[in-house]
Amino acid sequence: MAHMIALSLALAVALSGAPKSAPKKTQLKIEVKPASAVVYVDGKRVGTGSKVHTLTVEPGKHTIKIVHNRDEHQEVLVVKKGETTKWTWAFEDDRPQNKPQPTEAEPEKPAPKEDAPK
Questions:
Q1: Within-domain flag for 6
Q2: Is-contact 53 89, C-beta < 8 A?
Q3: Rounded Cα gap, residues 65 and 37, in angstroms
Q4: Is the separation of the CB atoms in 32 and 66 below 8 Å?
Q5: Residue 110 domain flag
Q6: Separation of alpha carbons 38 and 28, rounded Å
Q7: What span, in angstroms and rounded, lies between the C-alpha atoms of 116 and 67?
């Protein structure tokens, strides 16, 4: 009978100490383009757009600022407890574009004729 009580106590202790499911992390996942853009969260530099940044943060408001050349974008996000908030941003390509084609076709001019020696 003593073995039954000891076994019951061991089982009760084992069950009460069973790990519960781990709480979900509160995260902010940031993906920015181009790779040279600099990423700031709450005023702290976290890196560049060369990789996706996954940050564990406190629930609540967070300010994301992205700087690329002379352009920047800033936004405030609300991150909920236990959730991963995904945020993406891409700056428009500031390289010179191809010249626009004329809207009306211009008539082709005939090639100048070379005078043949007589």
A1: no
A2: no
A3: 10
A4: yes
A5: no
A6: 16
A7: 64
47 belongs to a structural domain: yes
Cα(93)–Cα(34) distance, integer angstroms = 9
The whole domain housing 74 covers 24-90
Say if pTM beats, i.e. exceeds, 0.70.
no
Q: Parallel, antiparallel, or unpaired for β 38-41 and 44-48? A: antiparallel
E strand or H helix at 54, and its extent? strand 53-56
| pLDDT in 10s for each residue of the chain, 118 residues | 555 555 555 555 555 555 566 678 999 999 999 999 999 999 999 999 999 999 999 999 999 999 999 899 999 999 999 999 999 999 876 444 554 555 555 555 555 566 656 5
CA atoms within 13 A on the CB side of 30: 30
Write out the two tokens for 115.
Answer: 């005078």
